[in-house]
Amino acid sequence: MPQADNSASTLFIDGEWVPAADGRTRQIICPADGQLVTTVSEAGAADTERAIAVARRAYEDGAWSGTSAWDRGDLLLRVADILVRDKAEYARAESLDTGKRLVESEYDMDDIAACFRYFGKLAGQDAGRLVDTGSPDAISRVQHEPVGVCGMITPWNFPLLQVAWKVAPALAAGNTFILKPSELTPSTAILLMKTLAEAGMPAGVGNLVTGTGAEAGQPLAEHPDIDLVSFTGGLHTGRKISALAAPTVKKVALELGGKNPNVVFADSDFDTAVDFALMAIFLHSGQVCSAGARLIVQDEMHDALVDEIVRRAEQIRIGGPFDSEAETGPLISPEHLRKVDDYVQEAVAEGGVLRTGGKRPEGERFANGHYYLPTVIDEVQQGSYAVIEESFGPVLTVERFTDEDDAVRIANDTHYGLAGGVFTSDPAKAQRVANRLRHGTVWINDFHPYLPQAEWGGHKQSGIGRELGRAGLGEYQEAKHVYQNLRPGPQHWFSEK
Ligand code: NAD
């Protein structure tokens, strides 16, 4: 069973565990209680550049890109089996790094194994397609090839899930990669590299650098030997990655933030609407890119719905990852706690009505963790800071609407477009609204389900490209057109004189 490495040799380059070239390390601290989790290597640009050179060599030698897609798929299926075998160890490591409840980390591990299984099965199914040339004397096909060397940069909220959405399709397509997970939550990425090696991944195909974005991450966007940079994180960083990647015209895939509407019509089942509104925003203390942070409720149901959400929010039990009573956990860091609190203060200063929360919970047991109370801010105005900005914390804002057109207009009034929910007992209305929402995923009478076989990604400034589904594999492939003349002979395009 893999163990997180405590010896601070946590860079995985060319199949070897090595320390940072300059010997720097970083302590990983549990956000729930401030305890030391582990110490990892702090890579600098030189380490990442070395990993890029290794991944380039491994790509060019064809030891992975030249294998059959079925064999690559088999490796991913073996990875899924190991993830199931070692689920307890993985989930514990994820919870220690993030502070999230153990049961939620266990769900994440199930989703991660399912992701590897999906891409493992998909890998060998698509040999490209024949194209009609219009001539019996020529054949033409479009085939899919790996993009090459992929740089992957991931966030801290679903650390290994976000990694899996990149690593599984990248390997299925025959790429090599360098992964830079969030500097706050590297433990499960370290475990994954051990699992990939155990499953038979050749040395140099998958490489890991643990460190900060500015130092270890930036070369993955800038370096000419990176063919694709795939980034998941905040909008501000995504813009920067895009700009850094532009001079080398590499492929760029961005999974960014969201300011996700949850539209509740007055004909919804009341208890269901309350239940999902709470789950949509307060799951993992709102640190979910697709969190239903904007409750947009029809006038007739507004007062009763908000009263009940406030009552229930005040009963949510907060605690650490191994507290079996806890229903939600801490924020990731003191900096993030400050950011969430600043957001709340700003929302209230501009006229939002604070109905509950807006501060840290009291009590000794919360003193060493970054906890924040579930917060509800009513009567926020369109165009205001509270509506535009992502808090990425346990903060629900409430807006009202009158009719269907009004609901769609308000829900689309954001520069983000990641996900949204619609609650109504009228199936035709639900479909009409879903079709009009400019968001990459729409849930009807539900919130948050992700399926590995369904594309995930953002409209507008929530991103570029898609993860999961067939398009998620396509992200890591180049299409090549191969045309063959079956009866070659002079064409006499130019005269012979
Ligand atoms: P972040 O943008 O601060 O960091 C994400 C990653 O980028 C980290 O690994 C970080 O080290 C790295 N990074 C930072 N600066 C960099 C630079 N200059 N060059 C290269 N890499 C750099 O985001 P975060 O705080 O870790 O995550 C929260 C954000 O992620 C939220 O906005 C959330 O909505 C978004 N997110 C989106 C999705 C999605 O699927 N769309 C999923 C999860 C999280």
From TrEMBL:
<dbReference type="InterPro" id="IPR016162">
    <property type="entry name" value="Ald_DH_N"/>
</dbReference>
<dbReference type="InterPro" id="IPR016161">
    <property type="entry name" value="Ald_DH/histidinol_DH"/>
</dbReference>
<feature type="domain" description="Aldehyde dehydrogenase">
    <location>
        <begin position="17"/>
        <end position="482"/>
    </location>
</feature>
<dbReference type="InterPro" id="IPR029510">
    <property type="entry name" value="Ald_DH_CS_GLU"/>
</dbReference>
<dbReference type="Pfam" id="PF00171">
    <property type="entry name" value="Aldedh"/>
</dbReference>
<protein>
    <submittedName>
        <fullName>Aldehyde dehydrogenase family protein</fullName>
    </submittedName>
</protein>
<dbReference type="InterPro" id="IPR015590">
    <property type="entry name" value="Aldehyde_DH_dom"/>
</dbReference>
<comment type="pathway">
    <text>Amine and polyamine biosynthesis; betaine biosynthesis via choline pathway; betaine from betaine aldehyde: step 1/1.</text>
</comment>
<comment type="similarity">
    <text>Belongs to the aldehyde dehydrogenase family.</text>
</comment>
<keyword id="KW-0560">Oxidoreductase</keyword>
<dbReference type="InterPro" id="IPR016163">
    <property type="entry name" value="Ald_DH_C"/>
</dbReference>
<keyword id="KW-0520">NAD</keyword>
<feature type="active site">
    <location>
        <position position="255"/>
    </location>
</feature>
<dbReference type="InterPro" id="IPR016160">
    <property type="entry name" value="Ald_DH_CS_CYS"/>
</dbReference>
